[in-house]
Amino acid sequence: MSDITSKILKKIKAQEIEKIPRWRFVLKRVFIWGALVVAILLAAFAISMMMMQMMDVEWDLLPKVSPMPVFGFFKLIPYFWLVVAGVLFSFVYFDFKNIKGGYRYAGVLIIAVSLLISLLVGACIYFLKTPEYAENLFRRVPMYRELHMGREMMWNAPTSGVLAGTVLDMDEEKMLILRDFGEDVWVVDISRADVQSGAKIMVGMEIRVVGKEIEPGKFFADAIRVPRGGPRFR
């Protein structure tokens, strides 16, 4: 035994330093990897929510509701989920750096790989239509609903021929009462409206109406569109 080894052993014995059990290292490693997987899955879910909200945009109507479509586009970006994804990817980066050998990999590579995995998993979640159900649940939370009100308010442009809101009442297929996202109530003539994809309009459903304003509080519908992510209710 070398002198250095002997001195270290004597020091350990003198200070009564206990060896850390191996199971603690294993448990720590499992925890770090588990947290890493959970963070990537949550980031994938955030990406799937962004996919759904961007697919829900009526791009052909954007010039109607925004004089400058470029600025309208920036208003429609789902910033909430973008921030959530950013925070999760930051966690993934720092968590990966703490695993054994993680320090050897460049930060750009870590983020790029985790982003690619999240995009693939997020696309699968999107096609399973999970974000549709999640969105309906999240919209019941007042804070979340308020965060997205600005995006919804863009479609409240009756003078430009676009109206959006919640169906309060219906008279068969001739008339409906709509409360827009500005809390104004409208009587909408839907007798000649083309309903998108043959969707069934129900009380409580959020819809977008394309047509023209007849007079304050009255609107004639040429077409009715439902969110592409699926029916939403309030």
Structure summary:
The chain has 234 residues and is α/β, with parallel strands linked by helices.
Number of E-type strands: 6
- Show unreliable segments: none
Shape: elongated
Estimated share of beta-strand residues: 15-25%
* Spatial strand sequence of the major β-sheet: 1-2-3-6-5
Number of domains: 2
Proportion of helical residues: 40-55%
Q: What does the average pLDDT come to?
A: 81
For the largest beta-sheet, the strand count, sense and barrel status come to: 5 strands, mixed, barrel
What's the alpha carbon Rg, rounded to whole Å? 27 Å
Order of helices and strands: HHHHHHHHHEEEEEE
Q: Label the structural class.
A: alpha/beta
Distance between the termini: 77 Å
Number of separate helices: 9
Descriptive account of the structure:
The protein has helices at residues 3-15, 22-55, 62-65, 69-76, 79-97, 107-127, 130-138, 142-147, 149-153, and strands at residues 162-171, 175-180, 185-189, 194-195, 206-215, 218-225. It is 51% helix and 18% strand. It has two domains: 7-145, no CATH class; 156-225, Beta Barrel (OB fold (Dihydrolipoamide Acetyltransferase, E2P)). The chain has 234 residues and is an alpha/beta fold. It is elongated, with a radius of gyration of 27 Å. Helix 2 (22-55) runs antiparallel to helix 5 (79-97) and helix 2 (22-55) packs across helix 6 (107-127). The protein has a five-stranded mixed β-barrel. The protein contains nine helices and six strands.
